[in-house]
Amino acid sequence: MSETPQLRLHRAAVSWRTTWWVVTLTASDGCTGLGESSDAGPGARRVWAEVDALLREGATVEETIALLGEGRSDGDPATDADGDDPQRASNPDRAPAPAPALARATVRGALEQALTDLRARRLGRPLWQVLGAEEARPVHRYANINRALRTRTPDDFARTAAAAEAAGYTAVKCAPFDGLPPALRLREGLARARAVRRALRPSTALMVDAHLLLGVDEVLTAAPALAALDLRWLEDAVALDDAEGLAAVHAAGIAPLAGGEFATGPAQVRAALRSGHLGWLLPDVKHSGGYAAALRLADEARAAGVHVSLHNPSGPVATAAGLHLAAACGPDAETEFAFGEASWRGRSVTPAEPADGAWMTPPQGAGLGIDLDHHWQPHPLPHLDGAAWRLDLVI
């Protein structure tokens, strides 16, 4: 049937660097689907205005989602006409400014998440089942400590990593090269990483995210020091479309390489996956453009024998989405968790998000299995003077 649900944006201010953004689609019977669009960058406002224009012209949500995915081929780098690189966009330590392509994909991802969730709830089926999983299995999650850090000395890195381990996590990721001037980046970043390794038990896995802040020559220079950290993976040490650099870093034998958090289609990562130089693909349900796009990326990785770990330094909506998605991505797919950023995080949704630990099961119930609770504020949509969007949607 055809309805005119309401579309609203909600925000939760988390820290100096993080704001969670969630879109809701609410049908006439009160059933609501949720989707997260956090870390889309400043370009998101322009994309929401574009969505507004499409809907005003009579496009359906499905048509709008499809149109947001147009404008570049599946194999094109996710850059706009100004040449901005979204691989640097969702992290404030990366430059230049975010590309509209990242914002378009992330807004599209939020709309697709919300639409899929709404349909699953109307069917009375859990989201993992709608996505094709056979069961709601426990999903392994690792702790990303980057957003829990208030200051970034080696001691702060070490204390936060130890706190994550004490909270039950068996794998910890840090981004030690963030926020440092180029002249000090390699030396000081390695000091931070060594402090984390010393703070953790040998049995606790450590991953390092370089955030594409080092040149290939710097990574190769640091190869012995990085290898000594006994890393589970080294993330974003080199861009996945740099075949020569990827081969060189892989040959250095530092650790399995990981990347792909901003990929939107298999063609963008196919060469890297088939090269044998990539150990882990990291799809993001937001930045990929939603559940369907993330599943295509995961299928491409599994076909190439590459592990799948869902990128998710995000809020509780994207985290719940990632749990359902991981269940559908295969028996070994895992996910990321933004450890320690907000003490009230679990209470921002209902039922409350489970406490810390190495394993987490998808929420029970129809659809995503959670609803927004405290700490969320309605956010006026562009050009609408704060009014709720009205649109046609076929359920």
Automatic annotation (TrEMBL):
Its EC number is 4.2.1.40. Residues 154-256 form the Mandelate racemase/muconate lactonizing enzyme C-terminal domain. Residues 88-101 have a biased composition (Low complexity). Signal peptide: none annotated. Pathway: Carbohydrate acid metabolism; D-glucarate degradation; 2,5-dioxopentanoate from D-glucarate: step 1/2. Residues 67-101 are annotated as: Disordered. It catalyses: D-glucarate = 5-dehydro-4-deoxy-D-glucarate + H2O. This is glucarate dehydratase. It comes from Streptacidiphilus jeojiensis.
